[in-house]
Amino acid sequence: MKREHPDGGRYAQYLEQAALAFGLNVACGIEVLGLEPQGEGFVLRTDRGEIGADFVIWACGQFGTPSDGGLIGAELARHYAAVGRWQDVPGDEVFVIGGYESGIDAAIGLARAGKRATVLERGAPWQDGDKDPSRALSPFTRQRLAPALKGGAITLVEGAEAIALEAEPGGIRILAGDGRSWLSAHAPILATGFASGTGPVSDWFDYNESGLPLLTPQDESTELPGLFLVGPEVSHNGHLFCFIYKFRQRFAVVARAIAGRLGAETAALEAYRANNMYLDDLACCDADQCLC
Ligand SMILES: Cc1cc2nc3c(=O)[nH]c(=O)nc-3n(C[C@H](O)[C@H](O)[C@H](O)COP(=O)(O)OP(=O)(O)OC[C@H]3O[C@@H](n4cnc5c(N)ncnc54)[C@H](O)[C@@H]3O)c2cc1C
Is 260 close to ligand 1, i.e. is its CB under 6 Å away? Predict the structure, then answer.
């Protein structure tokens, strides 16, 4: 692609080329609705009928499962994931609830579309000095935020815990837990995160108190051997792998586990280790040692 941060169209082209180059068997337009163990493997239930599999790697991400964060009256707002183009959002002044990656991305998108955005956030992730971007705003987002802030199109309000939305004649009132409130002329944008994307197979995972799937050291379901998880919900001992450059370091771990059971050659996976793309020793994930 010869560029960093390609747009969606270019990235889709890249994926198409990668699938062709590696001869991947990709079937589009099939929704997996659930799965059942069958014999030594699985049968996947889909909207196009059943498909058999020896192993299943669940890689459905979270973007398809937006969360309203339990906000009362959330139906009066519009989730970040439901916005196609920021210029189509009604109004010149838009409130965004939540100020982590999607909230700041929304504010930047709105500012670039010539609107003013006010971000209401319970903490202040744009100030957080944590070097783990699973917990603080990523450098790329900060880099994009700085010029938009200078231009005055974005206002960041920290310590604003939105708890409810109420319709009133002038628009939608956003109520905060500390008694403050803001009147939004149009539906505010909810940037309150995403729920687990494991819904269709949730019977086959156990979850910790944070709602994250419990996994073996090979990122396999603790409930159903042969069902693996890759992507932003992978976590181990409180270490989050929700960023792409972190969770992709676990792909070779899953590949080795499956290859081992198939009796397949695994020498090719050493290239991942040689390129720091094989993370099986999680000691380096400790807060003061994180090298990511
Ligand atoms: C605003 C924002 C900013 C972000 N910034 C960064 C960043 O700077 N750096 C970073 O590393 N990460 C970032 N992330 C996180 C990153 O985008 C995600 O973690 C990543 O896209 C997840 O990739 P994935 O392939 O696992 O899932 P996805 O990209 O969500 O892909 C999942 C695929 O599975 C398909 N699917 C879902 N359910 C089913 C089903 N039942 N049957 C069949 N197919 C299904 C979907 O259609 C989709 O194509 C950001 C996320 C957001 C929202």
Answer: no
